Amino acid sequence: MIRTFQQHRLRECQLLDGLWDFVFDNDNIGLSEEWHTNFPSNHDRVPVPACWNNELGKYDYEGVAWYRTWITVEDSSHLRLLFHAVMGHADVYWNGQHLGYHYGGFTPFDFVIPNVTAGVHELVVRTDSTLEHNTLPYHIVDWFHYGGIIRPVELQRLPDVWMDGMSITYDMTGDSSSDVQILLKLQSLSDTPAEVPVTIYRNNEIFYSDSAYLPAKGNIELVVKQNWTDLKRWETEDPVLYMIRAVVGKDDKTDRIGFRTVETRNKKILLNGKELYLQGVNRHEEHPDWGFSFPNKLMTKELDIILQMGCNTVRGSHYPQSEYWIDLLDEQGIIFWSEIPIWGAAFPAKETDDPLFVERAMTMMGEMIDRDLHHPSILFWSVHNEIDTRSEQAYELSIKMTELVKSKDQSRLVTYATMHPMTDICLGLFDVIGINYYGGWYFGHAEFKDMLEVFHERCKEYGAENTPVLMTEFGGAGVYGDSGWEPRLFSEDYQADLLGKSLKLFRADPKISGTYVWQFADTRAQLQSHLPHFRDRARSFNNKGLVNEYRKPKLAYRVVKGIYTNHNDPYDWGSTLS
After folding, report:
1. 149: helix, coil or strand?
2. What residues contact residue 38 under an 8 Å CB cut-off, 6+ apart?
3. What is the pTM of this model?
């Protein structure tokens, strides 16, 4: 399943999972040789969805690759091809005709093909996972950059009138009442005008029934506004969710929402008017056997481990994560920080205002918000991580990105993570500030206290004295199984000791509203023997996980769990500091 619930009952949907024909294009000759109409006969076969780097003999490859599959259509139909995620560049061909191009990696895109005749049809996809100076992420990136069709490809059969989108927004007018707006985007593929019935349900009860008229080959936006009462709010302790189903003629779509408010006040984050203290981890959606093509079963296990640790939040590092995962968080009342893959520790300031990079960043941000607008667990849209926020280029990019987010969604908080807390010039631009600081690892001793004193004073200079602050990354590496009598670097003992002391210090600071430990699980690193980057990544992994890559707990997991679960008052730590 792509979601944890069924999105369509009337619309016929088919997953194109399975083995596809596959070939690398090492010399990038596929376009000139027209592989989209003459697919190489010496092809391999690989599973879809999957990352090719997890297959034998394909580990190191970054670049262009081609996929092909065959689709049998029994009767003439309108078809919609929905790609839930393809890494990097994607060109899609149907029977040799170019349907279009998408750039991204973690957000969906689609093509509608009207009046497809019965028979067998060829679908070819050219992908390119190459990282460059203007890609997201940058070509120097601190995680393994997999390639491939990493999430499902869906074939949908559309009626003449179909729903191209459903957007649900609301404004809470009281504790249990809300002004709700439902926007339906309707498209007609018919050569003649059409009038169709429209019915919208909330938890299987009809709240709207009417009809809509569409001109031939036309489209309309249908807006329904109502005030709803007797609502229950989505709370972390009681995450109440509402199913919204729209039926338009012979088409339908279901999505799910939760009602809540989020705001900031006096350096605190408030959910439904109540102060939050966030206890979380950073999570890469990655596994050495599956890469980014993450199985649903492992998501449920990960969430169980995270809940057992006492977390009430997860940061999606550093890209839009699967809808299934966010559905699980909605259901469990876990808060999510969502971001796009602008990872900038090695990203030069001069590249930040590259027009193509900015265009790609804005597009990916918009696609993430459009896809995930209805998830109540998402409280934060994060626009970038660790870019050079000491620079004017980063300042200008931050303005563009925050304006984009606010134009699409004003119901959530806009944030970012800085690795320059003592020199950052963007502190006054955001609703929430995240600090990434590796005291005790990259910076020798864990001198967080001095850093925070300087940082809090700088917030006043930039008008951010009341802006909530989260510790979004901190920690150190611990190689699973390396333990002893002393806390040596890279030992489980050192990692646990560092995290324990750091968490106690942060929780003693009333100006810190929460913590995200780096990171949940060990992840494969982008370490190549011929390049100088990330040479400190033992085993070719980022070993800062609280569990190892196979989700086995380290000593640090138990230390963090002890802190996250045994203390109701997050600030009651001062007397225990050493």
Report:
1. coil
2. none
3. 0.94
